[in-house]
Design brief:
26% of the residues lie in helices and 40% in strands. By secondary structure, the chain is of the alpha+beta class.
Length: 94
């Protein structure tokens, strides 16, 4: 009924140092999604998200456009139905 699922998203492009994680946090919370976002050593950003599949698809569409004006997403890799850490909110991992 709720169609809950999980997704791992790896974002590439100009996604570090431009407020990408904070913009991602805002979008995820506005859609009622849980999970986390963190910078990776290869300058990508890794996102784990859990929620309604329709809301996650909306989330991904918003990420493609860049969650902040300075962000430039060149590629998103998604893997559905993963086992993310259990989270009840959406957080930034430092």
């Amino acid at each position: 009924m709720d169609n809950l699922t999980t997704c791992e998203i790896q974002a590439y492009g100009t996604v570090q140092g431009v407020g990408f994680r904070y913009g991602t946090l805002f979008i995820a919370r506005s859609l009622g999604l849980s999970g986390s976002v963190k910078n990776m050593p290869d300058y990508s950003v890794l996102i784990h998200v859990k929620g309604n599949k329709h809301d996650i698809i909306t989330f991904i569409d918003k990420l493609k456009k860049g969650p902040t004006p300075s962000a430039r997403v060149t590629k998103l890799e998604t893997t559905w139905d993963i086992e993310p850490p259990i989270q009840t909110d959406f957080t930034i991992i430092y």
